[in-house]
From TrEMBL:
Source superkingdom: Bacteria
Organism the protein comes from: Gracilibacillus salinarum
Name of the featured protein: Four helix bundle protein
Parts forming coiled coils: none
Pfam family, one: 23S_rRNA_IVP
SUPFAM superfamilies with a match to the protein in the record: IVS-encoded protein-like
NCBIfam families: four helix bundle protein
Transmembrane segments: none
């Protein structure tokens, strides 16, 4: 594949992720690419939705006459999400695409030699080995989720080893979020006695070690190569100091305890749903503690969605006569408390973005 085509496709994937895959948000970016004569590079992209393909084909047809198929190597590089569009025409046409300042690029290193990658790889291997001893009914839930989040740390570090500073920050931010999510799943596993206290502390320390390495690297980049780029602070808050996180862990404990009752034995689908919704609340709260405000907001919102889903499932259990509303009073109060904290934080984030 032409490197320029691959670069534009990767840029577009990044824009999708930052916009939470909203077709309303990325529609303008697709039009921008179409006007610059580059929308055609997305036509055969496999990881697009039907809505995206409709928009891509629409703009391809509308701007077919201006599409640039030759001499792509003469175009200036695509930027990552937060960069401004350049105003200097490319050599091959009057159309423009984002320009990356050469002073704001990085040396690409061998990721296999990076200590952070090695530690993330070791963490993933340890977690996979540990999960072999989990109950079989958790293989499609906790096991799947913790292995996925651990893999994401390593994967995002690997993707982050590239020339563009902003994209490195973006990928490392996702890696940090995945690390915090991994820690949350470890705490859930400890709460259910799937792992021992010693196993938890050892693996949680490994998670924090990886976060520390990434943070140090990001701090160095921000202070040196990234001057003038208005990069976010590389320091993320400790989710364990966030009250809603502890309450969400307690909520998980309560849901597991309730769903172990004899009354729920014949309601396997409802049990799986309730446990998934409660643990999803914890995982999303943890993953929200990362560099970018937009992602923080999105994960808090996903946590709220999980809480609303849990409320619906609890109501179903009452309607079916499996349990009583009174017996769920403590759970409901805790759920409302978490919801209020998340809503307040999201309101503060919205105010910060508007100011």
């Amino acid at each position: 594949m032409n490197k320029k085509v691959e670069e534009i496709q990767n840029w577009y994937r990044n824009e999708k992720e930052l916009s939470n895959y909203s077709i309303m948000d990325i529609g303008g970016k697709l039009k921008n690419l179409a006007e610059k004569g580059l929308i055609w590079v997305l036509k055969d992209l496999k990881d697009t939705t039907e809505s995206e393909r409709i928009v891509i084909n629409y703009y391809l047809d509308k701007y077919r006459a201006v599409q640039i198929y030759d001499n792509l190597h003469d175009l200036t590089p695509i930027l990552s999400s937060n960069d401004e569009y350049a105003s200097t025409p490319s050599k091959s046409s009057k159309h423009i695409i984002p320009l990356q300042n050469k002073q704001h690029t990085l040396e690409v290193r061998d990721v296999q030699q990076f200590n952070g990658y090695q530690k993330a790889k070791e963490l993933e291997e340890r977690i996979i080995e540990l999960c072999k001893n989990f109950p079989s009914f958790e293989f499609y839930h906790i096991v799947n989720q913790i292995e996925r989040s651990a893999e994401s740390i390593k994967k995002r570090i690997q993707i982050g080893e590239q020339i563009y500073i902003r994209e490195k920050f973006n990928q490392y931010s996702i890696a940090v979020g995945s690390a915090k999510e991994t820690s949350a799943w470890l705490q859930v596993s400890l709460g259910q006695k799937y792992i021992t206290q010693n196993q938890f502390e050892e693996l949680d320390n490994m998670v924090n070690h990886v976060i520390g390495i990434l943070t140090k690297n990001l701090s160095n980049i921000k202070e040196k190569e990234g001057k003038g780029l208005d990069l976010p602070s590389p320091y993320t808050p400790n989710v364990k100091n966030f009250g809603a996180y502890d309450n969400a862990l307690l909520l998980v404990e309560m849901i597991y305890e309730v769903t172990r009752r004899r009354e729920f034995w014949k309601e396997k689908d409802l049990v799986r749903k309730m446990r998934k919704q409660a643990t999803s609340c914890v995982a999303n709260i943890a993953e929200a503690h990362q560099l970018y405000i937009k992602k923080k907001f999105r994960f808090f919102n996903d946590s709220l969605k999980a809480l609303r889903g849990l409320e619906s499932s609890l109501e179903t259990s009452v309607s079916k006569g499996i349990t009583s509303k009174e017996s769920l009073k403590e759970i409901s109060e805790l759920r409302i408390s978490i919801r209020n904290v998340l809503s307040a934080n999201m309101s503060n984030i919205s105010s910060e973005r508007a100011s």
